[in-house]
Structure formats: C-alpha cells, structure tokens
Amino acid sequence: MTGEASTPLLKVENLLVAFGRAKAVDGISFDVAPGEMLGLVGESGCGKSTTALALMRLLRDAEIGGTAHLNGVELLGLDEAAMRARRGADVAMIFQDPGTALHPMIRVGDQIVEALTAHLNISRREARKRAIDLLRKVGIAAPEERFSVYPHEMSGGMCQRVVIAMAMACAPRLLLADEPTTALDVTVQAQILELLQGLVREEGMGVILITHDLGVVAGMTDRVAVMYAGAIVEMAATEELFATPLHPYTHGLLRSIPQLDSGWDEPVPTIPGSVQGAELQTGCRFAPRCAKASDACRTPPALREIGENHFVSCWNTP
Amino acid sequence: MTSEAVLDIQAAAPPRRTSAFRRLLRHRLALLALIVLAVLVIGSAGAPWLAPHDPEELDIANRYAPPLSEGHILGSDDLGRDVLTRLMYAGQISLSVGIAAMLVTVIVGFSVGAFAAYYGGWIGTILMRLTDIMLCFPSVFLLLFVAAFVTPSLASMALMIGLTCWMEIARIVYSQILVLKSADFIAAARMIGTPSWRIILRQILPNTLAPVLVAATLNTANAILLESYISFLGYGIQPPEASWGNMLTNAQSDFQVDPWLAVFPGLAITLAVTSFNFLGDGLRDALDPRIRDK
Amino acid sequence: MARFLINRLLQSAVLLFGVSIVGFALMHLAPGGPLAIYTLNPTVTAQDIERIKVLFGLDQPVYVQYFKWAGGLVSGNWGYSFFGGQQVREIVLDRLPATFLLMGTSLALALVIGVAIGTLAAVRRNSVFDYATAIGAMIALSLPTFWFGLLAIFFFAQTLGWFPAGGMVSIGDGSLLDRLHHLVLPVVVLALVLVAQWSRYTRSSMIDILDQDFVRTARAKGISPSRVLVNHGLRAALVPLVALAGLQLPLLVGGALVTETVFSWPGMGLLFISVLSTRDYPVLMAILMVGAVVVVLGNLLADIVVALVDPRVKLHDE
Q1: Which of A245, A249, C96, C233 has the fewest CB atoms inside 10 Å of its own CB, making it the most exposed?
Q2: Are residues C41 and C111 in the same domain?
C-alpha cells in the first residue's frame, strides 16, 4: 500500500507556500495512493496545516507554487469556481477545533444538509434523510433528534463527529484531517480516531492525517512524512519509520514521547532550541538544533531514497 | 516547547511608552490630525496677537464682505466684524469648553468606575445602575433641559456637558479594573510578592489609562459638537462673545445674504471634531497591544 | 425563553424606576425649581406663588410629590401645560408619530446602506474602498448635524429647489408623495451619521467573524462565496450589531431632536426646543421621560431580537 504500484490519488510536487517573504512550506513533494492514510507529523508551525489549507486553496494572502494533482486534475491551477466545485466533493477537510469549526447559530443537521446540497442535486427532504443517515454513521445516537440541535448543546466529541459527517457528506476521494483529536479529551480521542479509521476503510478514501502526536500516527497510518520548518525531512512506511528512524529530528521526536516504563522523575528528553527562524537558514534547517551537525550541513540536503521507499534529507545518515 | 514558551512571554510583555508614541506618529491620519489641532490651538490661544482685528471691532461700511476682501480674508459678518478674527476668538471658547468638559468626564467617569469596581457590593451596584440610568437619557435632551435653567458661561457649559457624558468612561474603567483584578498577570505579580501599590501603579493604572485616553479624546470631539449645538440654539455661550456654535445662530437667514458666514464656523467645528476623532482612532491603534502587529 | 423575557422585563422596570427618580430629582434640583417661571415673574405676588404651590401639590413632602408624579406618569395623567393648560399627554403623544417616522425611516435606510458598506469594506480589507469609507465615515461622524442640515437646506431646498426646506406636509396637500418629498432631506441628514456608525460597526464585526473557523469550514464545503458571506458571515456578525443598535438609541433620539429643529419637523424634538424657552416644565419632563422610555424599551426589544436569533442565549432557560 505504498502507492507506487497504482497511479496515486494525490500527487504533490514542489508545493511552496509563502506569506510575504516567509516561506511556510518550501517545495515539498509527496503522494497519497487511493485508500492510503499518510501521516504528516511535526511541531506546531512546521507548515503541516498550511500544506492542507493550501491543497484546499483556503489560504488568504498566500503565494502558492508547485503542483498538486488530484485524480489527474491540477488543483492549484483551477479557477476559483472550479475549485469550489471540488471542495467538499472531491477533497474535504476536518478541522482541529470542533468547538469553533461549526457555525454556532445553525442547527447541526442543516450544516450537514448544506454540505450535501452544495454538490448534489437532491431535494431538501432527501438531503435531510441523508444527513440523518450520516449522523447515524458517525455514531450519534438518536440522529433524528440531534439533527435540530445547535453545536453548543453538544459535547466536543459529538461536534467533531458532526464535522466528520460533514466532510464525509459527498464521499470525497481525499480527506484532509488536521489535528482531528487535539482539542478533545483523551478518552474521546481514541473513539474519534477509531471512527475515522473505520469510515475511511469503508469508503476507501485517501487520507492525510496531520498531527503532532506520533502516538496517533503509529496506530493509524500506512506511511508517515515528518516535516520540519516547511520541508519534509523523512518519509517512510510507518513501521519502518518507528523501527529505524534515520533523521536526527525524527529521532528526537520519537525520544520525546513519554514512556510509561520510565521513572516519573526522569525528565522527558526534549529537542533543544526552537523551530523559530529556521526557514532563514541557508543550509540544513535543523542544523542549529542538531547534535550531529557538521560542516556538510551548510549546504541544504535533498530528500533522497535510502531504503526501499524510505526517504530522508540528512548528510549524516548512511 | 520550553523555548517557545519563553518567546511567548516576551511577546506578551507590555509595550513600551516610546514605541506607543512612535506608533501614533506612524498613523498618518492621526499625525495630520495632531498638526491640524496644533494649528487650531495656536490660532485660538494666540488670537490676541495673531488676529488681524479686534473681535468686537465694527466696520459698518464693510458689512457682509465676501471672503478674500481687502482687510477681511474670510469676509465680515452682519455688523462688519472680521470673521477670521471671530473664528480665532471663538476657538478659544469652543476648544476650552471641549477640553474642560472632557476633563470633567474623565474625573467623574474614572471616580465612579474605579469606586464601583474597587468596593463592589451594593455601592458598586448602585453606582453602575446610576450609570445605566444616565445612559438612557439622550444626552442632548438632558443637556438642553439643564442649560435652559443655568446662566451660561464657559465653566457652566463645560460642567454640564461633562456631567451628561461621563458614563462611557465609568463603564470602561469599571470593566477594565474588574478584568484586571482577576487577570493572570496580576495574580502572577501577587504570587511573586509584588506589593499592591506597585501592582496598581505598574499594572492596573497603565492598562486602564489607554482605553480612557482614547475615550477622553473622543469625548472632547463630542463635547465640542454639543457646545456648538447648544450655543447655536442660543442656550450656550452668549453673544457678543463668539463661539463656533453661536456664530451659526443666524446661519439660516445669512444664507440669503452671505452664505459664507454659515460656512466657516461649521468648517471650523468639523475640522476640530474630525481631528479629535482621528486622533482618538490613532491612539486606539497605537495603545492597543493586540492590534500592534497589524 | 419565558424566563429570559421576565428577567429582562424586570430589569427594564428597575431601569425605568431609576430613570423616573433621576428625572424627578432633575426637576427639583434645577435652579428655581418647577416654579421658576413664576418666581422670576415680578407681576406674580408671593401669595400667588403659595396658591400655585398648593395647586401643583408642591407644598407636600418630596416623596409624596414623587409618588403622585410617578403615579401620574404610569396612569397617563402627565399634568397640564403651564401655558394654555392643555393635557401634556396629548401635546406630546401627538408629536410622537412624526418622530418615529423620521427615526424609523432613517434607521432602516442607514441599516441597509451601512451594513452593505461595512460588509464590503470587511471583505476588501485594506482596499481603496475600505480606506475611503473609513475616512468618509469619520468625517460624517464629525459633522455637526445641525450645520449639515443647514447646508442641505441651502443647497437642495433654497438654491436648487429640489426639496421643501422644512415641515412635514405642504399646506393644502397631504398626499403620500408630498409627505415623502418632505421626508427626504431630514432622513438623509439623520441617516448620514447612522450610516457612518453602522458601516464601522459592521466592518469590525464582519472582520472578527470572517476570521472565525466556522467561516473556513463553510468555505471548505464548497458553497458559493455569497452564501458564505450572508448565510454564515452576516448571520453571526449581525447579532452583536442588534445589541449595539439598542445601545446607540440615545444617539439616534438625540440626533432626531437636532434634525427636527433644523427642518421644522413637527416631532417631539421640535416641541422640546419650542417649549424650552418658556420653561414649560410638565411638557419638558414628559418629553425627557418619553425619550428615556423609548431608549429603555428599544434596548429591551434589541435584547429580545438577539435572544430570538441567537440560539446560544436560550441557555439560561434550562
């Protein structure tokens, strides 16, 4: 399921997003196969959410470069009307905070209906019926009653289920899930992830799961791309990445996951320094925080294939 | 993560005074307003030395002289008095009333708001209810009602306008202090043992002053407008003493004879009020740390 | 909802009680008190004054006077004019429709234009249109209404002769067209300030809303931009504006007074100015109180409207 055999569902090449002079995403390339779930991992501010919003063409005041083919259609080259026809229909997005992602003054059912009628030529009654089906599908009990409830009358987990239902409404081929569980209680997180995984399998859609939480990635995704300061520094199948991480940054990330078997007073290892200003670096962007940095790191390393489908951009890996 | 937190704290540090002033100067419209106000203030305050005529000097031969006439740059009025001279002297009155009334609104509003927030309880409730009640009266009605019974003078005008327009500042001060009392950085300051006088001086006062300063500037604009209207109706500054408002009292009949007489005082009011409003707007932008980066 | 209504009604009642006390105090604190017109008149003897005092009940304790006065206000007995002895209630209420017509028309006009300008300015943030309307609004807010009215009369009535210079109807003509013709100038003058305020408020409220996550969610659904703007943006942005409209009422009422005096519009404001010189206390007090009641009831109405359109307000019910 690495997407090499069949034609990819999404093929992103050299994606570049700049806000004024700051490059939030600096020429990244990756692809997603049909039915594949790709994890996009990194610290906040590394450009992973920006990548998703750029693919949705929902960024304001940003310059976008490169290409992104979805089923052969170049998303970044579409005019706004054509892109609008794709949003929700071919590519949908789940947002981070369900508390603010839903309109507070519109009944949740109507918000789903709107997602349906935007692309499907169906009657309001039919749309209502489908919306209720969707609510049931995302595990909301008594969907007929919940249809006419307002977001503030539901819990965060429930709201996120509604957001998922909305994203699923037109059965898009590609789903962008931007930190779908970060704003939720830990107990609810697992439920939502389970729901998401089930739905994705059922529908066979491609997914980009954006998260800063490697724990989420481990249990869900087929492949992982690790981002640092607007660039992908390592990409591999999930098991491979966890078993043999090659990039020092990936190493650091993996080490900073708190372990249950470590002593309570042992500090969790951290990566010294901060990502801030890294995009101004001329060489390897991680070099200032890297313990292994050497003279070679003054020239920027390219992403190269080291193992089978294992890519890394570091001079100091074998 | 830790270093990010450190950076956040630095970003949240209160802006320095000098930079607030510099931001104000960068605000081009506010800067322009400041220049216009300076000209108006110098022109009014310096009227005895700068004005081309005596404000009461009659020139019966040259009544209703149009603007750009010889000896009367902005023309003369129904008694042949020089319009520019009278505008300058009127500016003394109108600007003084505006600023004095603003001071009254700040003193009364700050006292009521701070007292209510500090003591709370039933005193606070009563004070803030009084504020609500006063806000129900359209201030023009209230002002005219009182003005009709008071012998008008500069001081009484300022006092009356001030006493009908303090409510907004009271509300601002009240809510600011309530918010500050429970703000995290105040709690943090307490926790590390900062003495309360220092908290009041360094944290509460500066944080309350900014919005009050903005409101005070806008109040000045409003007070000038109110004074001009009351004087226009004849309940304010009495002729022969000139105010921008009472120079317009005969504007309607003047239109037939000399429309310019109705134009210049109105322009002076608009210029002064617009300047104070733009200045207030610029101050708001300069002092509000949240919109600093926009 | 019922509880919310009762709660708000009670608050308004308390406010009105306070308003009546302040009004009553004002009447008695004014130099000369309610009898100033007589005490200052040299032809009225001391005995006459005593008789008038008894006649008006001014010899009784203050609280008795208050309750008599307040009771009269509530029961509709607002006393008699010092001049001509007409019922105050009749004099004042006769003028109310004209004032409401002027205020209502101006407010409606200002709402439509102001909200449109504000929305456009918010959408085209930092455009020439945005700056131009911002500066225009600031100048409009700084214009003395009475002076602007005078200029309007000079140009459009006296010089161009397009509109009548004042009044509500021409003598001998009471047709709808004639009334509309008279309405134009005063409405435009009063509406100018309101348009300026509303465009500013709408702009800032819309900017707040357009940055919200739920607007991004709406765009992600692929619905049309106008639908996003109106159905999602304006719907949320207008709620705080309705409440604000209530708070702005004193300015509207005050502005109507100024406009009426300039255009000889036969409303409450013109009446107020005409009786001001005679210090006809009962009439002045009645107008002052009616003005305050309009403000209180307007605020109540605004709150009820907010509660009706914003589902979140109903939370208090449970």
Answers
A1: C96
A2: no
Q: What pLDDT does B137 receive?
A: 87
Question: Which residues 85-104 of B have a C-beta within 8 angstroms of C?
Answer: none
Question: From CA B51, how far away is CA C283, in angstroms rounded?
Answer: 45
Question: Which residue on chain A is closest to B6 by alpha carbon?
Answer: A274
Partner-chain contact B2 A270, CB within 8 Å: yes
Question: Chain A within 8 Å of C292 (Cβ-Cβ)?
Answer: no
Tell me whether residue A137 is in a domain: yes
Q: Rounded to 10 degrees, what is the CA torsion of C215, C218, C219, C223?
A: -140
Which residues of chain B make contact with C30, given a CB cutoff of 8 A? 145-146, 149
Q: Which residue on chain B is closest to C251 by alpha carbon?
A: B138
Same domain for C211 and C122, yes or no, is yes
- Identify the three-state secondary structure at position A11: strand
Residue A41 region, left (φ>0) first, then alpha (ψ -120 to 50), else beta? beta
Q: By the 8 A CB rule, do A34 and A9 touch?
A: yes
Report how many domains make up chain A: 1
A153 is a domain residue:
yes
Q: Which two tokens stand for residue C186?
A: 């005063």
B133: which 2 tokens? 């009640």
CA angle (C118, C121, C126) in 5-degree steps = 145
Candidates C235, C225, C228; CA nearest to C202 is C235
Residue A235 Cα, gap to closest chain C Cα (Å): 28
Tell me, what CATH number does C178's domain have? 1.10.3720.10
Q: Which residues pair with B64 in a beta bridge?
A: none
Beta bridge partners of A93: A176
CB contact under 8 A, A103 and C235: yes
Prediction ipTM score: 0.85
Contact status of C216 with chain A (Cβ, < 8 Å): yes
Sign of dihedral through CA atoms A246, A247, A248, A249? Answer: negative
B14 is a domain residue = no
One domain for residues C173 and C68: no
A233 part of a folded domain:
no
Total number of domains in chain C: 2
**From the CA of C92, how many Å to the nearest CA of chain B?**
15
- Interchain contact, B4 vs A276, CB within 8 Å: yes
CB atoms within 10 A of CB C207: 15
Kindly give the confidence (pLDDT) of every residue in chain B, 294 residues in length, as a single tens digit, with 9 standing for 90 and above. 333 333 333 333 344 445 666 666 667 888 888 899 999 998 888 878 877 777 777 777 777 777 767 776 777 777 767 778 888 888 899 999 999 999 999 999 988 988 888 777 888 889 999 999 998 888 888 888 888 878 788 888 999 999 999 999 999 888 888 887 777 777 777 777 777 667 766 777 777 888 888 899 999 999 999 999 998 888 888 877 888 888 888 777 777 777 788 888 889 999 999 999 989 888 887 776 554 433
Q: Which of B172-181, C49-58, C142-151 is modeled with the greatest confidence?
A: C142-151
What's the whole-model pTM score? 0.81
Q: How many domains does chain B have?
A: 1
Structure tokens at B18: 């000098």
Q: For residues C308 and A298, what is the distance between their CA atoms, to the nearest angstrom?
A: 63
Model pLDDT for residues C89-109, shown as the tens digit of each residue:
888 888 899 999 999 999 999
CATH code assigned at B115: 1.10.3720.10
Angstroms from A54 CA to nearest CA on chain C: 12
